[in-house]
Amino acid sequence: MATLIPSLNGCLSRMTRGEKRFAQRLEEKLEGDYLLWYDVPVGNSGFHPDFIVMHPRRGILILEVKDWRLNTIQRIDKTRATILTGSGAKEMFSPLEQARIYAHSVCSLLEKDPQLINSDARKHEGKLIFPWSYGVVFSNITRQQFDSTNMGEVLPDTRVICQDEMYKDVDAEVFQERLWQMFPWQFGKALTLPQIDRIRWHLFPEIRINQQADLFTNTEDSDNTPAIPDILRLMDIQQEQLARSLGDGHRIIHGVAGSGKTMILGYRCLHLAKVLNKPILVLCYNVALAARLETMIAEKGLMEKVVVKNFHAWCNDQLTHYHVPKPRGVSGNEFFIQQVQAVISAVDSGQIPAGQYGAVLIDEGHDFAPQWLKLVAQMVSPETNSLLLLYDDAQSIYDSNKKRGRFSFKSQGIQAQGRTTILRLNYRNTAEVLHAAYSFAREVLEPEESDDDGVPLIRPESAERHGPQPELIRLPSFDKEADYITGRFKQLNAEGVNWCDMAIIYRSKFMGKTLTQRLRDNNIPVEWLNENSHSRRYRTGENSIKVVTFHSSKGLEFPIVAIPGIGYLPNRHGELKDEVRLMYVGMTRAMDQLILTGHQDSGFGGMLAKVV
After folding, report:
1. Which of 189-193, 301-305, 376-380, 389-393 has the highest mean predicted lDDT (pLDDT)?
2. How far apart, in whole angstroms, are the C-alpha atoms of residue 265 and residue 273?
3. Quick count: other Cβ atoms within 10 Å of Cβ 486?
4. Which residue has better confidence, 274 or 341?
5. Highest mean pLDDT range out of 77-91, 170-184, 484-498?
6. Quick one: which of 305, 309, 324, 381 could link to 314 by a disulfide (CB 3.0–4.6 Å)?
7. What is the tally of structural domains in the chain?
8. According to the model, what pLDDT value does residue 447 have?
């Protein structure tokens, strides 16, 4: 079965009847290595072909679908058509001409990439390394009706699929033959997966990851042509299909660490900002992640329409804006408890209005207490009912979740049943890092049965990217640990690793203080995110080592991570299961290389020695 992007359920509301039938035939009659895109904009041109069909060996085919009937076509030639509509005659491009324009636009875009151009001087030199073509689908005109007219003189019959050639009972091979007879030529070589990814990277800029789009836009070669990175990062097919298929209403994404949840949130913001008039609210629990999300949203140019806050900062803003008294005479955790309750009470009384936002998106939703989720769900405008919740129970590490128990989303006003997508594949970590992290935390992360909403705790699967084994370095003292990490990072930097690609993740404040001072003493640029209450702004553009707590590291990632003080763990103030989850979160921040240091035997040290 072919992969349709968006999924059929995700685009039914905007499909014509003919487009729906044709999409169903494409899915049913084509094998699993076919990729199909429906009504997806190409590049920055604004073109929306009805269907793009791609196959590794066949190439790319652009198709326009028309639900015209024979008696509604008043006139048609090679470039123009006049159609009778309910409001009179309407002139437009011939559908074949429209498909041709789209196909040439696609080719012009892809021909800018030398890696997609044929260098063989004997055949097709300077041309794309795969075939391409275009055609038309008439969903309400049979082949007999088509042949009874002179349309074949302006629309070659080999480039047309008719109504009876897309019936459900049509043989799959016959259906495919109709598609591929549209090609004037065929190549013998199949596209590789990296080449397919390059094609997708060019055609669909919105699926590029991180700053790839900025790199493409801002970097130029000698003739002012945008330079193309050698290494491309983009959504995989499942992530792209999910991002484009979310649709309206409440949507839940249950994804393991490193599965691309935050990336999908960014794509969703980009889409909603184009179609909604009301502001969009993005919430998370921890301050550092909120800063990173804000940076990501700013890079997409969405700050005028998207509000990014950590949950308690948003509560404070609500109390301030609507003149609701804030808690007095209390501090610490009790202040935050009363602060949230004040917002809840004000919403219940109507002093703070519900439905303020066109959409609400919650990242790391496993950090939210049930009553928080109920509150936030009320902030979604009933006109859109657009709520996206991203979470992973394996990373639930905050005190609020100890009280969460086995509550259901339904009980908090969130419609999760039948609206939940599970992402099992971890892309962030190498197989070696993921194996070590999961093996260490296995006992608290074992998959569980589904809850009332049909959402289970799931085991992460590796995308099989490989790197060095994690290291556990035993040293005489914590002071020596600080020396070792400082020297190791200096060596890595001398070998070409940027300071900003390295991070230290720690459990107790004295660890962060000691490591930060040691780095500063060695004139190494460092940013201690938790140094004081005003220092949790995650500055992505600063080339410095980040020093961050386990808690604040959630949602962040770095190529190289060092975790000191293993001998002091588990923290005596925390429960063992919570400490294991914290360590799992810290370990899975390492994309490529994980370095652990300790100076005495402990429960954690012994457990880690078995897996590292």
Report:
1. 376-380
2. 12
3. 20
4. 341
5. 484-498
6. 309
7. 3
8. 58
pLDDT over 70 percentage in the chain: 87
Element (H, E) at 94: none
Could you report the per-residue pLDDT of 271-289, keeping only the tens digit for each? Answer: 888 889 999 999 999 888 8
Span 77-136, pLDDT tens digits: 999 999 998 888 999 999 999 999 999 999 999 998 988 988 765 666 678 999 999 999
Q: Within this chain, do residues 262 and 362 fall inside the same structural domain, yes or no?
A: yes
pLDDT at 107: 93
- Pairing of β 80-85 and β 73-76: antiparallel
Task: Answer whether 477's CB lies under 8 Å from 442's CB.
Answer: no
Q: Tell me the C-alpha distance between 58 and 189, whole Å.
A: 9
Tell me the one-letter amino acid at 388. L
Tell whether 452 is covered by a domain: no
Q: What is the mean pLDDT of residues 202-213?
A: 70
Dihedral sign computed on CA atoms, order 457, 461, 463, 469: positive
Q: How far apart are CA 57 and CA 185, in angstroms?
A: 12
* Segment holding 63, helix H or strand E: strand 59-66
Torsion of CA 2, 242, 15, 205, to 10 degrees: -90
In a domain, 442, yes or no: no
- DSSP conformation class of 324: P
Alpha-carbon span 545 to 524, nearest angstrom? 8
Residues contacting residue 87 through CB under 8 Å, at least 6 positions apart = none
- The helix or strand, by DSSP H or E, that contains position 361, with its residue range, turns out to be strand 359-362
Distance CA 384, CA 194 (A): 38
* Four-CA torsion 303, 307, 312, 313, nearest 10 degrees: 50
Q: What is the DSSP string of 569-595?
A: PSPTTS-HHHHHHHHHHHHTTEEEEEE
Question: What's the CA gap between 240 and 256, in Å, rounded?
Answer: 17
Distance, in Å, from the CA atom of 574 to the CA atom of 565, rounded to the nearest integer, reads 16
In this structure, are 183 and 313 located in the same domain?
no
Contact 396, 445 (CB under 8 A): no
- Three-state SS for 542? coil
